[in-house]
Amino acid sequence: MSNPKTQFAAFDPVWAQVTEEAQATIRDEPLLGGLVHSSILHHPSLSRALSYRLSMKLASAEMSDQLLREIVEEAFISDPGIEEAARADLVAVYERDPACHRMIQPILFFKGYQAIQAYRVAHWLWREGRRDMAYFIQMRVSELFGVDVHPAARLGKGIMIDHAHSIVIGETAVVGDNVSMLHSVTLGGTGKEDDDRHPKIGDGVLIGAGAKVLGNIKVGHCSRIAAGSVVLEEVPPCTTVAGVPAKIVGEAGCDQPAITMDQHI
């Protein structure tokens, strides 16, 4: 009997584009042939490729790539939503990041995309009660990529983190679908409280570089947070906030700021 994942991959336009780009990459840069074959062309689907890629990136003397690959593959098999989100994230990066010209780039090279996919595995482990393993993956992602997302945080799909340096997302944070953020963003708490203490980011929000959103506050759908802002109060939907502390400075400027990535105020 044929593998259903293999059958699905044959009709997956995203994976088809990735494999076409992989073949073109080898033609253009033969020295990357081993990397591209092992990471992309040896696999029948996006989930299998990510299982391999993440395990190789996260492996260390403390945990082998073989053990990690078993964990990641188990997560993808147990929860099909992880692959769905990974595909949505990949399309989001391809469509929103002007430095991304091929879908193969985030899988091979972009630490923001890789970090979010590793978080999704850690979140699955957290929900399964395997919290020490979830913490292990969080630790490795932080060490490797400079992205520290607590495995209990809840992130939607279609997430794009540009540059992805010094990202911090706390334990009780919630991030909606189709959110874009740039480097040095913090979704943090305001003290030592031990309850629901982190921000709730709505769908379609754009968070500029260096912005800090602190406390159990809501950021409304399709709003914008200007670079360098410190947000301490609720942000209404479809507005732009800026400053320290952040204040409303106008409307969001468009229907989908996270997709257009327009940061002009």
TrEMBL record:
Domain Serine acetyltransferase N-terminal: 14-118
Pathway in which the depicted protein is active: Amino-acid biosynthesis; L-cysteine biosynthesis; L-cysteine from L-serine: step 1/2
Keyword Acyltransferase annotated: yes
Keywords noted in UniProt: Acyltransferase, Amino-acid biosynthesis, Repeat, Transferase
GO molecular function: serine O-acetyltransferase activity
KW Amino-acid biosynthesis (keyword) present: yes
Cross-referenced InterPro entries: Hexapep (IPR001451), Hexapep_transf_CS (IPR018357), LbH_SAT (IPR045304), Ser_AcTrfase_N (IPR010493), Ser_AcTrfase_N_sf (IPR042122), Ser_O-AcTrfase (IPR005881), Serine_acetyltransferase (IPR053376), Trimer_LpxA-like_sf (IPR011004)
Entry superkingdom: Bacteria
Catalytic activity: L-serine + acetyl-CoA = O-acetyl-L-serine + CoA
UniProt-listed Enzyme Commission number(s): 2.3.1.30
Record's protein name: Serine acetyltransferase
